[in-house]
Design goal:
The complex is a heterodimer. By secondary structure, chain A is of the alpha/beta class. Helix content of chain A is 35%, strand content 15%. Chain A has nine helices and seven strands, in the order αββαβααβααβαβααβ. Chain B is α/β, with parallel strands linked by helices. The longest helix of chain B has 22 residues. Chain B is globular and about 75 Å long. Classes of the chains: A alpha/beta, B alpha/beta. The interface between A and B is large, with 36 and 39 residues. Strand 2 of chain A pairs parallel with strand 9 of chain B.
């Protein structure tokens, strides 16, 4: 029998994980787990998670974790890092936590170049509460609070987080976007987003495009198609800022 | 012990340094701004202590929590609308029993309102947020008390692990006066040490720590809150503080806190010199409230007079805690206004005349 391959840093007792079947976040977190293993930082990192689906990760890893309030994981991790600079601090959040209710924290953290790592899941909706419109919802995408699809003339165009943050980030910042289903790209960018902090440079921000079949009302193939084609067309997979010395 | 000329806000920073505070996060707002400034100044001299001016009070509150999770004695200071925004962090601290320390210098509400004085943040500080009000709140009334209770607040927070507040106002915060500045050794005050919640020094077999405030079942949260309440009740008697001043033979007992209690004390001294039987009961901890003592103090009194710079936030707390007593209560409520000893003297004199004919 072939044994499934799981990251060493995943906590066995909390598996199977709490995400819906087909959720892209579980995949993103598996990639994160392998990156933590590769960097061997499980015993010196603190993982903070926000509210929304991200709270389901409070006991996901065999690392010290703290689950905070909606939008507030980033200041919590910034405070931890300030008090204990030797810690590797990771703030994990959704697109609501980062781009809506916690947006002021994100903008100011990037302006200050706080030396923490941020991973933000973009699944184009508010998933935990049942599929409401998010800042990342695509134009025309039907969500429960915009039943006819996002009308850009009324509520504006989807937010481009990494692109926006790159405008105010320092040369020490690492800012990128990836997708949970491209295992190599996703793992490598997570590794770099953590390595940049380990090296003692500036802030690191990674947006991960992720599938939400339950709220998108899509089957497996449709979920892949929506995330890998429609979302990627709007949200290009790339590195927007990468310090020269980061490898 | 040395005499020093300090404002209340400067005294807070002196005290915080004396008791080993290591980190402050905050957002400028009158009347606490000088706490930020004096702490920022202190970090220039001592790079081992940390400071972050955050983008808002939510960030300040949660960054403080981040700091203390690492085992650093961290604190914040705020007022008025900042106190409203910070309730998000305080409720998390309350629900997880985290030893946050916050200096609240009250100002008039709502947002800009007036920026120096009021006693309108009593409800918010004692019971704010979507929690149960399991918080420790010291109400201070002058510069010396700001120094004394700043020291005490850190020790109380780390000993009992409930969010701890020093509730003051801009009058005390901005008054420059001479106070006694002492070292902890002189007063034989032991520093309660901090300890890390996350990234503790682990031995081989120690498991990782996963902290949360989300629960799968209502009963899980209910059990936790009941345990918190039990813990809070069991430490009440060690925490409650009050000033019981000339109440034994008094006909009329004044209930006041903070700045107004200091004012009332002067009025009572003046009345006592004329052999008038008035006394003062001043709760120093508004939460937990010195309930049993308050109930004992008012027995056989002709009247209770509650005086405060709010429409009745403090009076409501008093009434709740003396429930069942038949002593009549009179309120002197000047929302957002200071109340001088002269006025208290006159009002009490009138009350005594009415009572005794």
């Amino acid at each position: 029998m072939v044994e499934a391959s799981f990251p060493k840093s995943w906590k066995k007792s909390s598996k199977p994980h709490k995400f819906c079947p087909g959720c892209g976040q579980a995949l993103a977190l598996k990639n994160l787990g392998f990156a933590i293993d590769k960097l061997q930082i499980a015993d010196r990192m603190v993982y903070g998670c926000d509210i929304g689906c991200s709270l389901l990760t409070w006991d996901m890893f065999e690392v010290d974790t703290i689950q905070t309030h909606h939008g507030r994981v980033l200041p919590t991790m910034i405070g931890f890092k300030l008090a204990k600079p030797s810690a590797i601090t990771l703030a994990f959040m959704g697109d609501g936590g980062g781009y809506a209710i916690g947006a002021q924290h994100l903008v100011n953290a990037v302006m200050r170049d706080d030396p923490v790592t941020i991973i933000l899941i973009n699944n184009a909706n508010y998933a935990m509460t049942g599929g409401q419109m998010a800042p990342t919802t695509l134009v025309g995408q039907k969500v429960t609070t915009s039943p006819n699809g996002r009308d850009w003339q009324k509520v504006g165009l989807p937010i481009h987080g990494p692109e926006m943050l790159a405008q105010i980030a320092s040369e020490n910042a690492y800012i990128a976007r990836t997708i949970s289903t491209d295992i190599n790209d996703c793992q490598e960018k997570i590794r770099k987003a953590l390595q940049n902090q380990i090296d003692g440079r500036g802030i690191s921000f990674l947006e991960i495009i992720s599938m939400c079949p339950i709220n998108w009302h899509t089957d497996t193939l449709e979920s892949l198609a929506f995330s890998e084609k429609e979302m990627v067309e709007v949200y290009p997979i790339k590195e927007f800022k990468c310090p020269q010395k980061l490898s | 012990m040395a005499k020093e000329l300090l404002t209340g806000n400067q005294a807070v920073v002196k005290a915080a340094l004396a008791v080993g505070a290591q980190m402050m996060t905050g957002y400028p707002i009158t009347p606490i701004t000088e706490i930020l400034e004096a702490w920022a100044e202190a970090t220039v001299k001592n790079p081992n202590i940390k400071f972050l001016q955050t983008e808002d009070e939510m960030s300040a509150g949660f960054a403080m929590i981040g700091g203390l999770l690492s085992g650093a004695k961290s604190f914040t200071a705020t007022s008025g609308p900042g106190n409203v925004l910070m309730q998000d962090a305080f409720t998390m601290a309350e629900n997880m029993r985290l030893p946050t320390v916050a200096f609240i210098n009250q100002r008039g509400g709502p947002s800009t309102g007036t920026v120096i004085y009021s006693q309108q943040e009593v409800n918010l500080t004692c019971f704010g947020g979507n929690g149960e009000g399991l918080r420790i709140v010291y109400s201070v009334g002058n510069v010396q008390e700001m120094y004394d209770y700043a020291i005490k607040a850190f020790n109380t927070a780390w000993k009992y692990r409930f969010p701890t507040f020093v509730l003051g106002d801009g009058y005390s915060a901005k008054t420059l006066t001479e106070i006694d500045v002492y070292s902890l050794d002189e007063k034989k005050i032991e520093i309660v040490p901090a300890s890390a919640y996350l990234l503790k020094d682990k031995s081989e077999n120690d498991k990782c720590v996963n902290m949360r405030n989300c629960y799968n079942l209502e009963s899980e949260l209910s059990d936790l809150l009941n345990r918190h309440q039990e813990a809070f009740n069991s430490i009440k008697s060690e925490i409650v503080e009050y000033d019981d001043y000339h109440t034994l033979d008094a006909e009329v007992v004044v209930f006041a806190h903070g700045n107004i209690a200091v004012s009332a004390k002067q009025a009572i001294d003046a009345l006592r010199s004329e052999n008038k039987k008035v006394g003062l009961f001043r709760p120093i901890t508004l939460n937990p409230f010195p309930k049993e003592t308050a109930q004992a103090v008012i027995k056989n009194k002709k009247m209770i007079v509650v005086i405060e710079s709010s429409l009745g936030q403090f009076a409501n707390i008093v009434k709740t805690n003396i429930y069942g007593a038949s002593t009549p209560i009179k309120k002197i409520a000047h929302p957002a206004l200071g109340i001088n000893p002269d006025e208290i003297y006159d009002q009490l004199n009138n009350i005594l005349k009415e009572l005794n004919g």
